[in-house]
Design a protein that fits this description.
Elements lengths: L7 E10 L2 E8 L2 E8 L20 E9 L5 E4 L17 H5 L37 H36 L2
Parallel strand pairs: 3-5
Antiparallel strand pairs: 1-2, 1-4, 2-3, 4-5
Length: 172
């Protein structure tokens, strides 16, 4: 009897490599060896495989694929009874709308502050309907806030340095 794609088997970790773990499955006295890629070990980020598995450890694996050369791809995370969902970062409504509420900074060098809600005629801009937050979009929001904040801090720093240079020239 041979392994079947999509079925779950009991196996033993035979060897650990930087990119995955080799697992042997004994089926009707015949030993089959397959590889569990590092991305298929756990639902969480795996930096070091040895933090999650050890040689000789008994594991449940699901057969993902058997190619024409007989190489078997296995997954531990897909073989779990109740896989642990990836943690989602909670983003509150105030965090999401903060980027539109930044009216506390004055306009710089004649540039209009596009972070406020008022248009050029003083009327409120219509708001787009709120999209459901996915982990990727939450990360993108955090990244754009970080970039905006960094750019503002850098321009403040440059302005401060320039003013110090100007005052130092005057003092001579």
């Amino acid at each position: 009897m041979s392994l079947e794609t999509g079925k779950i088997y009991d196996g033993k970790v035979r060897n650990i490599a930087p990119y995955g773990a080799f697992v042997e499955i004994t089926l009707d006295g015949k030993v089959h060896v397959g590889m569990v890629h590092i991305s298929e070990i756990s639902n969480t980020y795996v930096n070091e495989i040895k933090d999650h598995l050890s040689e000789g450890q008994e594991v449940k694996v699901k057969v993902l694929n058997i190619d024409e050369n007989g190489k078997t791809s296995l997954s531990i995370k897909k073989a779990m009874d109740n896989p642990v969902p990836r943690p989602r970062q909670q983003v509150s409504k105030t965090d999401r709308s903060e980027k539109f509420e930044r009216t506390d900074r004055p306009e710089r060098n004649g540039q209009r502050n596009f972070g406020n809600r008022e248009g050029s005629n003083g009327l409120s801009r219509p708001q787009a309907p709120a999209k459901p937050q996915t982990p990727e979009s939450a990360f993108e929001d955090m990244l754009s806030k970080f970039k905006q904040s960094s750019e503002e801090k850098m321009s403040d720093l440059k302005r401060n340095i320039d003013s110090k240079r100007r005052s130092a020239r005057r003092g001579k």
